[in-house]
Amino acid sequence: SPKTAVVAATLTAEPFEAELVPGKKTVVWAYNRNIPGPLIEAFEGDTVEIRFVNKLAQASTIHWHGMPVPADQDGNPQDAVPPGGERLYRFTLPAGSAGTYWYHPHPHGDTPEQVYRGLAGLFIVRAKDDVLRHLAEQHLVISDLRLDSDVSIPDNDRNDWMNGREGQFALVNGQREPVITVGAVQRWRIWNACSARYLRLAVPSRKIILVGSDGGLLERAQIVDELLLAPGERAEWIVAGPEGDASLMALAYDRSKMGKVAPERDMKLASIKFTQDSVAKLPERLRTLPPKIKPVAKKRVVFSEIMSMEGGQHGMQFLVNGKGYDMKRVDLTSRVGETELWEIVNDSHMDHPFHIHGTQFEILDTTLKGKTISAPWRAHKDTFNLKPYQSARILITQKHRGLRMFHCHILEHEGLGMMGQVLVK
Ligand code: C2O
Ligand code: CU
Ligand code: CU
Fold first, then answer.
1. Ligand 1 atom 1 nearest Cα
2. pTM of the predicted model, to two decimals?
3. Which atom of ligand 1 is nearest to the CA of 407?
4. Which of 86, 287, 409, 416 is positioned for an S-S bond with 232, CB 3.0–4.6 A?
C-alpha cells in the first residue's frame, strides 16, 4: 500500500503591519504573517495536524472549506478558540478527496471581518495516481482589497452588509495585475477567495480548458469561453500557448445587487505572457467518478431575504427556510453514508452561492423560469451559484457524524444569518 505521512504545521492568526502600498503600513490580520496564508499540501491517506494559535482579539476557528474532515475538527462556530487560546486540528484525508481547497475562519458573526482583513489560506490534496501530475502548477488565489485614503482597511458599511463586500482591487496572489509567465503547458488552480466578488473569468481570444472543479478533476476536459467562479469556488485549468500576450479578465457580471450601485465593469486581473507555442495533450479520461447513487431522502433549502425595520443596523435579513442562523438550533437531520437529494432554491432577487461543509456534492440539474437544464458535466462541488429564483437539485452524502453548516458564501450574508445546520447522525 502507498506510503502515507503526517503533515504538520502551525497556523498563527495575528494582526501585523503589512506594506500593501509602497512606503505605507496597513494593519492586516493574517496566518503566519502572510496573505494568503501558507499553502498546505498533502496526499490522500495522509494525516494532517495543524496547531492553531489565536493571537487575535476575537474568538476564531479554522474551517477546512470543502474537505471531508470530521465535524469536531472542522472549525464550527460552536468550537471557537478564544483570544490567546490554541488548539490542534487533526484529520486523515480519505481516498478520493484530492482537490483544491482553502481554509478560513468560521467564528459566529465575525467571519466576514476576519476574512476581509486577510485571514485565508490554501490547501491542496493530491492523488498519487493523478493523471496530470507531471504538469507544472501555477496557483492563482484571487482576493479582494479595500483601502481607505489613509491605507487602513475600513469596516463594512451598510452597502457591504447588503450586497457583500467588494474592494477597489481584486488581487492575484496578493498583487495587482501581476504578469504570469507560461512556458510549457501549465496546470492552474484558481481560487475565488473574495468575500462577495463574482469572477466571470475569461482569457479573451483564447479558450479555457477546464479540467477540475472544487473537489478535484472532472471526468473529461471541457473547452469553454468563460467560467463563472462565485465566492468560495475553485477551478483547475490547463493553460497552453500559442506564444503571445493575453489577459486574465474578470468580465462584468450582474448579480442583481440592491440599492444604487455602480454598473459592473470588466476588470483585468493579470497579464499572461506565453513565451512559447505549446499544445495541451490530455488523456481522454481524467478521472472516473463513482456512479450516482439513488437518494433515500429529500431535503429542501430555501434562501430568501427580507427588508426589515428591526433587522437593526443593516436593514436586511438573510434567511434559510424562513429563519436566521441560530447556532443552537438543528435545522435538518441526515444519516451518515446515506445519499440524499437536496433541492436548493434561491427565492430572492439577487444571486447567492450555496455552500455546505464536510463533503462534496454533485449537481444534477438547475431550473430557472420553468426551464430545467441538466448539469453539462459531472463534477464534485461544495459551492455553486444560484441566480435569482433559480433552483438546483444536488446529490449529497455526508461522510461523518456531527453538526454541519450550510450557507450562502457571500460572507456578509452568512454573517447576517443566511446559514443553517444539518445534524448528521
Ligand atoms: Cu468557506 Cu462555511 O465556509
Ligand atoms: Cu466551508
Ligand atoms: Cu447571499
1. 65
2. 0.97
3. 2
4. 409
Ligand with minimal distance to 360 CA: 2
How many domains, in total, are found in the chain? 3
Judge if 264 and 330 occupy the same domain. no
Q: Are residues 213 and 105 in the same domain?
A: no
Provide, rounded to the nearest whole percent, the portion of the chain with pLDDT above 70: 98
What ipTM does the predicted assembly reach?
0.99
Question: Which of residues 91, 126, 161 is at a domain's end?
Answer: 126
Q: Is residue 49 part of a domain?
A: yes
